[in-house]
Amino acid sequence: MRILSGVQSSGRLHIGNYYGAIREFVRLQEEGEALYFIANLHALNSVRDGARARELTLETAAAFIALGVDPARATLFRQSDIPEVAELYWILGTVIPMADLQNAHSYKDKLAHGAAPDFGLFGYPVLMAADILLYDSDVVPVGRDQRQHLELTIDWAGKFNRQYVPGYDSQKRTGGLLKVPAARTRDETASVPGRDGQKMSKTYNNTIDLFGTDKEIEKQIKSVKTDSTTPDAPKPTADQPLYELLKVVFSPEEFAAIDAKWREGGGDPKTHGYGAFKQTLLDGYHATFDPARKRYAELMNDRAELERLLQQGAQKARAYAAPVISRVRGAVGL
Ligand code: ADP
Ligand code: TRP
């Protein structure tokens, strides 16, 4: 089984990225041939400063490794080190209906949040499809927000195969030039709320970061939105980002005790107020992420080693890509 996924290097990583994506990458590297990459071409849509883009690429690579992606086991690489992906992006684009892109949720959402409608943003799902199809991927673990991109990829791979493979069987999906992948989303942790209760996202300025300073993290956790329930009263569980975050960060067993306290009224304000629950979340955050934060700092102090690991990954990734791009070139007549 070949597993592929990527994360854009467009900003600081947050705990939503970990629980929604990276944690699953770490698990899956045990189950098959995993390819994980830093989507630094996608990131150019929002990072328009070369030095910053370069820095964020390395930060994202360090984050993957610090959080448990093992470069000896998984192929870890930088999207831009594989020029074949840009070629496949173009070729795929020639068979993709405009309407599919006009209807993509992420494009519409970004415009609604004030992003400029650039061609890069519009074509973003096509590059993502090229990422997936270039390596004959079987399984693509992504968060729920990326699911539509995967469905589009599946459609487009079928369309391409029907166009270029005489007698291609769309039902069985076998014998195509491009392998049709399966989606994999983990619904129980698929959407981590941000401090304000919307989906946690670096674009909404509502994150709890993975690699901020202790002070920054404390400030972020203390600013999680709560309601006006008094400390001694039972707390509501619906639409409460603090409650959801505690559920995500703690194991089910640990959370059971926190949940009981949350629901019981009449306790000591010092232990049953929202402030106390925020402190619990902060403690849970440190217990979970401090080892990775330490490793991250070490990695960022050895850029040459990071670079070496990425080059090694790129070599492996290009070897996976070579037969696919050669089939595609042959079929389309290049
Ligand atoms: P952001 O929304 O902060 O820009 P990205 O779009 O770069 O994050 O997402 C990187 C990965 O992390 C994707 O696989 C995405 O599904 C996952 N992810 C991002 N935010 C969340 C979240 N709040 N909950 C769960 N997964 C998330
Ligand atoms: N679009 C994804 C995100 O925002 C990143 C990404 C790019 C990706 N190419 C991909 C994810 C291919 C999975 C497969 O997180």
Ligands, ions, cofactors: adenosine-5'-diphosphate, tryptophan
CATH architecture identity of the largest domain: 3-Layer(aba) Sandwich
Which strand order does the major sheet show? 1-2-3
Strand fraction equals 5-15%
Task: Sketch the topology as an H/E string, one letter per element.
Answer: EHEHHEHHHHEHEHHHHHH
Write a structural description.
This protein is mainly alpha-helical and 334 residues long. The protein is globular, with a radius of gyration of 22 Å. It folds into two domains: 2-191 and 303-332, HUPs (Rossmann fold); 214-297, Tyrosyl-Transfer RNA Synthetase, CATH 1.10.240.10. The mean pLDDT is 94. Helix 3 packs across helix 13 (274-300), helix 7 packs across helix 8 (147-164) and helix 10 packs across helix 13. The strands form two sheets. A three-stranded parallel beta sheet has the order 1-2-3. Strands 4-5 form a two-stranded parallel sheet. The chain has 14 helices and five strands. Helix 1 links the parallel strand 1 (2-8) and strand 2. The site of tryptophan has 13 residues, from strand 1 and helix 7.
